[in-house]
Here is the input.
Amino acid sequence: MNTQLHGFSDASEKGIAAVMYVKGVHPYPTKTISIIDAKSKVAPIKPKIFQMLEITGALMLAKLIDQICTILCIPVSQICI
Here is the structure.
């Protein structure tokens, strides 16, 4: 079985979120996908530039990747972004 880690982040005027999930590809055409961890927060009330919200989401994802890799003992050198 081939196992892959995936990360995704997104932001809107209402909130910011990041998620890490694992995808297992079996020898036959079956895939298993499970969420490992996710973080979210409400966007600030003060209007901000939308790009800043997206950057905040990317930072949340980077921290989440670091946490998951530390827990799973995955070397940073094996991470592709």
User: Anything to note?
Assistant: The mean pLDDT is 87. The beta strands are 2-11, 15-25, 31-42. The two ends are 22 Å apart (CA to CA). The chain has one domain: 2-78.
